[in-house]
Amino acid sequence: MTTLLFPPDVAIVRTRIPGFASLNAPDQRRAAAFALQRDLGVDPASVLLATRAMTTSDDVSVAFASAAKTASASVPTRLLQAVNVNQISWFGAPAGFVIGPDGAAAIEHPGEPSHALPAEILSMLSAHSGTAQVTLIDAADIPTGTLELWHAASGVPFVAAPANDNDRSVTTLEPVTSANVSPRHTSLDRALLAACVASVICVSVAVVAWATNRGVLTSAGVASTSRVDAGALLSRIVTISPELRNSMKSATYGGNAWVIALSAPAGIEPFAAALRNNGLVVQVVTEPEARLRVSLP
Fold first, then answer.
1. Is the pLDDT of residue 92 over 70?
2. Does the pLDDT value for residue 183 go beyond 60?
3. Residue 132 burial by CB count (10 A; 0-12/13-18/19+): exposed, middle or buried?
4. How far apart are CA 284 and CA 146, in angstroms?
5. What pTM does this model have?
6. 231 close to 261: Cβ distance less than 8 angstroms
7. Can you give the pLDDT at residue 221?
């Protein structure tokens, strides 16, 4: 933020507020107040202010005054408009004062002879090589050909602003109104919410699937037992042959062995071979239904 001009009791500053041009007037004042608080430590509740978007949408000129000193304040509209990123405004040439993109200066000693450019103008032009033009506002009588000489000396055109009754208008500084901010749901918010819901659903499905597979043992008729080795043996069986769990119709523990009934006898021998190869004692029964009797050696 750059301070440009200090009229009586009013300061004009230049700042940058992303997306300023897309806001409505109350939101523009609130955004400007936030910028003042951020960069200058100004309490938004203690100021009156007015704003104007500059050449680019993010550059803003802000005029503000202390609300404690006056109940109402205003600033000449032409001063607020004079702040521009690519031009210099010269008031009262060949004397007066000049406002540039990043500063203001009073011209106390006009160039001599009258067609010479004041040092303040030359200094400001050298600091801003991208200046498009110098606009003369309320200029005094300037000898014919002087503007052309200034152009030739600086390489920048000097243009006299046309007389306009609006040049005498003022912009009223207004207080910053508070607002109840309601959250806005953007497309990104909705996408994140959908992803969150999908994640919850996936986790829920996984938990249900895990619980279903674990529940096969009990829902299929696994008898309860107080012996720890019974559970350890069953866990070893299903670890050795995970496919066995999907074919299991019921499982009963008794006589230090698990008797496992299968829904189909087709894969009983591979199951038995896998368990035997891992050190378990296995008996195969096919009638009246396919069963495996598995015990520790």
1. yes
2. no
3. middle
4. 116
5. 0.50
6. no
7. 47
Per-residue tokens: 236: 């070893």
What's the pLDDT score for residue 205?
A: 76
| 256-267: average pLDDT | 79
Question: Looking at the predicted structure, is the pLDDT value of residue 225 above 60?
Answer: no
Query: pLDDT category, 104, cuts 50, 70, 90?
Result: confident
Sequence letter at residue 47: V
Radius of gyration of the chain (CA): 43
